[in-house]
Amino acid sequence: MSKEKSKEKKQSTLELLAGGLSEEAVRKKVLDPSRKAFMSYDFTATKASSYDQFNKIGSGFVKHYMKETGMGDISDEKASALFQRYINKAFESEGGIKAAYESARKDMFGVIQNVSRHMESEAKNDYTQDVFSVVDPTDFEAQKEIATETIGALGSLYKGPTKKPEALAHNWRMLAMNYAGMRDTAKNLVGDYDTKKAA
Questions:
Q1: Dihedral of CA 75/79/82/84: which sign?
Q2: Hey, where are the domains in the chain?
């Protein structure tokens, strides 16, 4: 394979990363399905009158969320276990599941909204890791080339401590995210300009 073809292949890897990390891709793949799942859930009660009802509504939402976002059907037992995990994490700073239940006795909708946001955050993180998986974590040369191309594309916008690709290769994920952010910014600026021009 020629150097030119090899370079072209690695450039497409950077573009693939940037495309997957773009605001539009994240919105379509994660945010829109997540928020649609929350809005489409049929709440049987706005307040939890008992712990059993609290768990039933919560696990029902988790099961609904998993199905609506394409993560598949799960059993009631699995949904209940996941709800326990998510609720403890979502209310960790407030006291975990006990605090969540007390809150649900007044506002079940708010509790599920909090859980939904936590699930969305986890889904976004999982999606990001899937995007990064296109790069071999042991391929230093590929990572160095991504660093080289990203620094070149960012130009004067890059404010890092060094511009040596070999020193930055280990940080290729953050560089790719910065590049994706730059593309989003440029796209938004062009969109704003076109909108004002049309007006």
A1: negative
A2: 3-22+137-198, 41-131
